[in-house]
Amino acid sequence: MVPDLAALLDPAQTKRLVVKIGSALLIDDGAPRKGWLATLAADLADCRASGMDIVVVSSGTIALGAARLKLAQGGRGSLADAQASASVGQVSLARLWAEAFDAHGIVTSQVLLTPGDLEDRRRYLNASDTLERLLELGAVPVINENDSVATKELRFGDNDRLAARVGQAVNAQTVLILSDVAGLYDRNPAQDGAKLIPRVEGVTPEVMAMAGADSGSGLGSGGMRAKLQAAQIAERADVRLGIIDGREPHPLTRFRETGRGTVFIPVRADSARKAWLGGRLAIEGVLNVDDGCASALANGASLLAAGVTGVEGDFARGALVGIHGPEGERLGRGLVAYSAAECRTIMGRRESDQEVALGYAPRAAVVHRDDMVQE
To answer: At what angle do helices 79-102 and 61-69 cross, to 10 degrees?
Structure first.
């Protein structure tokens, strides 16, 4: 086994493990795969006995609820159906995990999150503190997106990215995604000659291109592209992310035996605050900058008004905005020190001209380097 793959379940290198399970593994034709879940719980109990803290991110509420409510299209025919299904399914999913871990004398908790819980800094820290206390008390948090209240406009959209964000929040060393494929392939795994890639250092555009649009995962809303985006989020916090085949019973034991999977090795490690910034999903606007500004940002400078050439969107001070270069290329994102209207007022102006335009003394930067992360 590749040493970095072995590290995923090595208690000496992974003290805290986040494991994500998708609907396609947990649910079969609307019914839970209780036998399979029992084997996974046994594997996780073994990990816990070896000294690891365990956090579970589990999909399945919509599929379970839709089956109970007898809704068409797996409960995804409309937003209202999905929310109703999730509300019913949350009860079933919590019971499934509680029963599976009860067999090993392990207490579970249910934690339902929305993007706002992790996008807002104060709420993010509150969620982190709650999860930390649960782990201190010996419980296994079972986390899912709160689909009963999430909307199309504001949701994670898949639990792969949620798992990576949770990995940041709990200071995990490893996020492990159980999938219906063995890992990342150099092309569609259904094609002849497709090769499994065991180790990836950084998610480059070339790596992202390997995730085709048809690489979905059955019942779930994610796919390989979402898993690569999750790896990017995890990387910012210096967290390893692994993808392994979870279809067979005792998937973690089987992984130890076969060594098949893909591990994404972090090649950068941002500060805790910048890792949180880089993991945020929803930007509220865009600042376009010129060539000189783009070069300065690449060297770690703050974004100054003189380099801004355009402002997109309507946002308030403190909003998360994208920063794009002259050709529309994404350079980074950050917390803006001015509203959109104020940005339009001072864009392209030198500091000496900004006070007259604003009517008050300008701030040090439009986006300070401490509040910015590069893409």
So the answer is: 110
